[in-house]
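I'll show a record.
***
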Amino acid sequence: MSASDPWHRALADLVSRSHRLPPDELPVAVDDVLRPLGVTSTLYLVDVEQRTLRPLPGSGGPPAEPLSIDSSLAGRAFTQVEVHVGHGPPPRLWVPIVNGTDRLGLLEVFPPAGADLADETLWDGCRLIAGLVGHLVTGKSSYGDCLHRARRSRPMEVSAELLWNLLPPLTFATADTTINALLEPAYAVGGDAFDYALNGGTISLAILDGVGHGLPAVLTTSVALGTLRAARRAGADLTATARAIDEAIAGTWSDSRFVTGVLAEFDTRTGLLRYVEAGHPPPVVLRRGRAVRTLTGARRLPLGLGDERGAVAEAQLEPGDRLLLHTDGVTEARDAAGEMFGLSRLADLAERQITSGLPGAEILRRLTHAVAAHRDAAFSGDDATLMLIEWSATAAEGSEP
């Protein structure tokens, strides 16, 4: 597109408005910049449990209704991270809204009457606007509550409110590696957490599970997470990081509380994974769509209890491999008969979802919802957290619109 193109002018106008744009005026601003093109729109954000797409209040007209991700054309556009055409009436385009590769929602675009819905210029223009909206949703969320409220179907517990604000985005991708994570139950998550950071060609990974439930568990995990980041940013290796977490937890509480976890470093240039397992379920390696092994090396006591062994295990991954990390709330989720979800069921479902060709974020969403569907209310049990790392350029490409 040239600088004189109307879509380019709309994009430039939205950038100009964005500097002093309150979060609750984002839908109005998008409508304003699209008006000269004869285009109107509705913004939808995915709810925190990733089951529906919830509309943001717009500048006029009746309020839109939430849309099911699993049973709507809009949901298909969201899950596949692809533009979809809705023939109406009225005709529209469903355009994914992402921040980087983190799926945030959809932009519902109503082109002018008689417009060609297959026009590549229209699609490219919509993608440009939706791309900027994704950055604005992320950047503006810290300045008000309306974007948070729009993503919730009910109040969030204090423990979950605290934890969600400590976590990195659910999805991140480079040219050859994709990271996805998801927590359940979204509104009442307790001591589970995840973390990742890319430095050079090495990705630091962590999945944590604080002992207990609710706010006390989250506070313990928060100390572990903060210590992990401080140690990593100071250049500590895996052994030193684990010991720093031991000392931080033991020095803060005297009731023998602890956090289980997996700490890892993955070299995306060589495929070498170095890891420490601290009383946590072992990661699963999936190769060519099949679960081939669990990583059981370098076992030590849970973080906070102290362990002088300091061993670090290594595993060599191959291009195209996936690494699935989980907390025990996944495999130990029980149905009404008391049957646990189990590792074999998790591996089998992961294998089937991988062959679907869907983005990693969607694979994880479906796995998490399968765990939630299996869990009976009488056996509410522990939080269930999943983390999927894909060392695949093809998977990385499939995570963006």
The chain is about 35% helix and 25% strand.
